Amino acid sequence: MTEGFEKVPSRQRRRFPGISSRAYEHPADRSALVALRKLSGFDTVFKTLSGLLPERSLRLLFLSDSVRVSDAQFAHLNDMLRDACYILDLEKVPPLYVTQNPRPNAMCIGLDEPIIVLTTGLVELLDEEEMRAVVGHEVGHALSGHSVYRTVLLFLTNLAVKVSWIPLGSVAIYAIVTALREWFRKSELSADRAGLLVGQDIQASMRGLMKLAGGNHLHEMNVDAFLAQAEEYEHSGDLRDSVLKIMNVLPRSHPFTTVRAAELKKWAASRDFQRIMDGHYPKREEDKEASVSDSFRASAAHYANDIKSSKDPLMKLVSDLAGGAGDLGGKVRDRFTGGGRGNAPGGRSEEAENSGGSGGSGADGSGTDGSGESGDGRRQ
């Protein structure tokens, strides 16, 4: 074991007996899950849909053509898995498989019983503490029940293809799929938080996300510079860039990697995280009493605060309009052109006099987890 690992031995980490997934779930993810859990028979209905999806086939495929992690195979991963389940108090340890694939992926799938799959590309890419965060990420998915609820997304995506010949049929389903993908992306932020609770090493979590973005070249990368990319991405460009950002993220199941890193860093510095580490968190036994309306209010408040504090030009415009903006036409024009609200002599805006423009760039739509959805890249 290296010197770095000796500083954070697995059994010296804090454990969270009886912790509810509500403790770490993103507000938008939590509100959806609380509402779905309140629907009587919801799980039963969608578990019956397993016959319409290749779940049994996938289980047999991994059993026959991948390596099942145990004390005899990939023992260090087996120790991490049991450790993660111990820390998050997940009673039944899900099966874990390693499958040959050079692309770094991880996913949690299954309706009746979740299974976790890691690719060899991911196993070879990450060090021990980075992998511990990934395993915790997947265990977080299992504890939240994402593997069940994401079946809705898979089912509707497949259904959209089948009804594409019906006028407006695929349009209606696509609207639902788009909304579910937004939830999907927020559930990934939830799982990132679970990974931090398991690993309890923010630097390892940051390194893992950097490696997913830039490969195994840590000597060429810097956490602060990586996080600065997220800051630049958020408030660079004008309204046109804001629209392009939305278009880039719509088909993705994961937020962009720099955004995930920034969100996790912010949560790690929050009072909510510190309260969990101090042992103050909602318990699983209280899940049935969780209020749907309170969860939705928390989600709405979170989005409102995001819009209010965002430096993105579109979000600024929305915030201005919500606050009773006066010159609507001028604001829209300025956001599209990057101009300011006032004009300097000579017809140039004060903003143009004092600052230069900067453009944002979008990343490839890679990164998924949990749903087995194809067409997106990394799944961790």
Automatic annotation (TrEMBL):
Cofactor details (free text): Binds 1 zinc ion per subunit.
Cofactor: Zn(2+)
Biased composition (Gly residues): 356-374
The protein's name: M48 family metallopeptidase
Species: Streptomyces physcomitrii
Residue span, Peptidase M48 domain: 80-267
Family, as annotated: Belongs to the peptidase M48 family.
Keyword Protease in annotation: yes
Spans annotated as Disordered: 323-380
Coiled-coil regions listed in the entry: none
InterPro entries documented for this protein: HtpX_protease, Peptidase_M48
Keywords from the UniProt entry: Cell membrane, Hydrolase, Membrane, Metal-binding, Metalloprotease, Protease, Transmembrane, Transmembrane helix, Zinc
